[in-house]
Amino acid sequence: MTFPSPTDPRITPVPASMTDLARVLAGHDLTRSTCTRPIRLTGSRTLVHRATGEIVHDFHSAHQPTGMITVPCGNRRHTVCPACSTLYKYDAYHLIAAGLRGGKNTTPTVAAHPKLFVTLTAPSFGPVHLGPAKNGTPRPCGPRHTGPHCHTWHAVGDPLIGTPLDPGTYDYTGHVLFNAHAGALWSRFTTETRRTLADLAGIERRALRTVATVAFAKVAEYQTRGVVHFHAVIRLDGANGPGSIAPARMTTALLTRSVRTAASRTRVTMSRSGAAPFRDLRWGRQLDIRTIGSSVDDGTALSDAVVARYVAKYATKGTEASGIADLRPLSCRTCGGQGLLVKPTEPGEAQRPCPDCHGLGRSTTWAALGLSDHALTLVRTCWKLGGREELAGLRLRRWAHTFGFRGHFATKSRSYSTTFGALRDERAAYTAAQRDEALGLPSSGDLVVVNDWHYAGRGPLPDTPTPAPPDEVSQGSAVVSTGGAR
Fold it and tell me: What is the pLDDT of residue 227?
């Protein structure tokens, strides 16, 4: 895996103050941009003076030409809504960057803490067609001494890239089950990293928290073959979190050894099932560990800006790398994908086919999905395994559209840095202050906002290409609420 060099001339450092200002201004401008699938609302918002109870401003959607307003959908996926996903990417960048260099209520001293950028991959489930390398260098697909092979130099965009060389021998079951257990595997990895760090430092495992803490932030990315792998930022703090420094013996090198050892030890044991000949799931052999902000300029360390941009980029991605641009959940909501009504309509009546999906359990036919053979086989494997009683807890039919992966794409430790909610609140406060100034209203601390909004559908309003301006509704905040104090 190739990463940009920290000395790449295309990467220009930006002062933190300028970055904060740019994020707020860009975020405010993005809230004005066109959302491709806005949410329609009807209702009202009333601003009441806290001390006197006087209504200082009252807005009703009924006064609008269409009788409704729209707010952005807030979807993080770029293929679904470019405008909202860009805003999410900006927030993800600053969330990750705050844990690397401070800011956003995170102490700047974290910049001196040991930090790693780690990539954890999935094992091989069979040989697949290879495309160009990460840096764009062409490479041959193969050759192999035994088994299937391909001598083609696949160009970027070739639909064969990522598909099995021999679909008949490819382990689709293992592929789907790895995706389904990837979240549990990550959780076990974080636990094993802490245990290994304590062992290598000569500390009792239970006493590690009195000496040091380990903070994580990770994002999931789909490989072209349709399996997830994780990019993670791992930081070593003192006993009191980001504001303290770990003992001198707990160096970046020790953290690197701990991560490497933990990755090799981590495994998840599945429930016994006749669908899979194995029970243990582990990480793949490819493990990439890079130092972040190393004081030694050896050409391998990464800057905090490079890491934050890399993570933010993949925070808005989905399964499009595998040929699925916008596949929605397939399971029928009425029967939960089972094809049968769980509760008979009358006492003593036997279960009968679901009238909404006609007993299929899904909302469409396989042919209507329009997927490649490889992607369709993954979806159908999820559906088949989802019907097994011993695998019911994985909810594979519910998550067939993501090849079985049901975890959050971006997660972090509580102590790593700020939160998405805090960033949204900051943007909402900025937007509200501008609105109040334009309307000549008192400061926000003197007002109580009473929202009474109701869902009225999706999509742009007729003859209205853009959402309602921010002086009509605070688009950076959750407006569907009642009695919120601002």
Answer: 93
